[in-house]
Amino acid sequence: MISRIRPLAAQWTTVVPVLALVLLLLSWKKSLPGPVVAVVACFLAGAVLAAVHHAEVIAHRVGEPLGSLVLAVAVTVIEVALIVTLMADGGDKSAGLARDTVFAAVMITCNGILGLCILVGALKHRVAVFNSEGTGAAFATIATLATMSLVLPTFTTSTPGPQFNATQLVYAATASLLLYGLFVATLTVRHREYFLPVTPAGDLLDPQDHGEPPGRRATTVSLALLAVALVSVVGLAKGISPTIERGVAAADLPAAVVGVVIALLVLLPETIAAVRAASRNQVQTSLNLALGSALASIGLTIPAVAVASTWLTGPLLLGLGPTHLVLLALTVAVGTLTVIPKRATPLQGAVHLAILAAYLVLAVSP
Questions:
Q1: CA angle at residue 59 from 53 to 64, to 5 degrees?
Q2: Which residues lie closer than 8 Å to 251 by C-beta, 6 or more apart?
Q3: Which residues of 138-167 are buried (b: 16+ CB within 10 A; e: fewer)?
Q4: Residues 327/358, Cβ–Cβ less than 8 Å
Q5: 204 forms bridges with which residues in the sheet?
């Protein structure tokens, strides 16, 4: 009996994305009552987890660090699609949605996922060990992209408000895309060894420690199901987004909380994958997931919304306010001090989590 149950349990990642897609087709562009929203939310969560599972299968096939990139890009595709679709329907009230979601992703990845993985890895293995060369390069790129895309619009004077004019927006989008492309080339080709997991002694981890990779057929099936899961997640999230917005408004919370909810929803499964890697003493893989997602979030979202702004109505607000500027500066400073020593203790993980907690508190109570 148990032998029959196990195969059925293993098939949920195949069944859930298909059922989620069917539910999407049945509920598309319809006003959903409360009970239906609850069902949609359950299938959305299942589709997200299934997407991460299939991304991990593909990642195992292609190996590190390309595997982490696959998962980061998959998650960012969800995020970009959600942002653009919500902005298309939101008008002026969604003018700051891209900024709020991208900044939330940066804070969650660079403080939440990074801090949690360091904490888990250090508690379980005494210290969390990683490559400072690759991690430092990724963190420097994040700091640069965040400054160009989220900080500079606050101080430009050619356009009223925290936004770029057309020339500035084209530059920010182009620079984001180019720097992200250069990071990907560095990660996968030029300096791949800087992003590989290391042992506590600082030696590269034996690839055999990851186990036998899946076959070509299993990888192809996972690739197809990953696409189905991503389409389902984007569509179902769009369907329940009015409920999220009404809930935020009913609770009298700032509109920026919608961006935080979207980022938390999208990044939750990636957080699980990163923590699993940290518990196996593969902290570098965890950091690749966290920082790679932050880079993809900025490097792909800003160009996407820049293109979308040509047909979207209303302004595109990108500049951060004073409180968020302080939190971003603190994140960059603390993250730099965390990366340089090549190893971290539970204290450093707790410090990053404290910064994330401050961000969440101030998002709810500015």
A1: 140
A2: none
A3: bbebbbebbebbbbbbbebeeeeebbbeee
A4: yes
A5: 198
The pLDDT of residue 342 is above 80? yes
What's the pTM?
0.83
Burial 330-349 (b: 16+ CB within 10 A, else e): ebbebbeebbeebbbbbebb
For residue 324 the two structure tokens come to 């968020």
pLDDT tens, position by position, 117-170: 999 999 988 888 888 888 999 999 999 999 999 999 999 988 888 989 989 999
The total number of residues written for the chain in this structure: 366
| Alpha-carbon gap, residue 182 to 133, rounded angstroms | 15
* Percent share of the chain, pLDDT over 70: 90
User: Rounded distance, CA 27 to CA 160, Å?
Assistant: 40
Return the residue matching tokens 């890009």. Answer: 73
Given this model, what pLDDT does residue 150 score? 94
**What average pLDDT does this structure show over 14-32?**
84
Nearest Cα to 312, choosing from 47, 34, 88, 27? Answer: 88
Q: SS3 for the chain, per residue?
A: CHHHHHHHHHCHHHHHHHHHHHHHHHHCCCCCCHHHHHHHHHHHHHHHHHHHHHHHHHHHHHCCCHHHHHHHHHHHHHHHHHHHHHHHHHHHHHCCHHHHHHHHHHHHHHHHHHHHHHHHHHHHHCCEECCHHHHHHHHHHHHHHHHHHHHHHHHCCCCCCCCCCHHHHHHHHHHHHHHHHHHHHHHHHHCHHHHCCECCCCCECCHHHHCCCCCHHHHHHHHHHHHHHHHHHHHHHHHHHHHHHHHHHHCCCCCHHHHHHHHHHHHHHHHHHHHHHHHCCCHHHHHHHHHHHHHHHHHHHHHHHHHHCCCCCCCCCCCCCHHHHHHHHHHHHHHHHHHCCCEECHHHHHHHHHHHHHHHHHHHCC
Rounded (5°) CA angle 149-154-155? 110
- Region of 49 on the Ramachandran plot (φ > 0 left; ψ -120 to 50 alpha; else beta): alpha
**Residue pointed to by tokens 């180019």:** 178
Contact by Cβ (8 Å): 298, 149: yes
pLDDT, residue 159, reads: 85
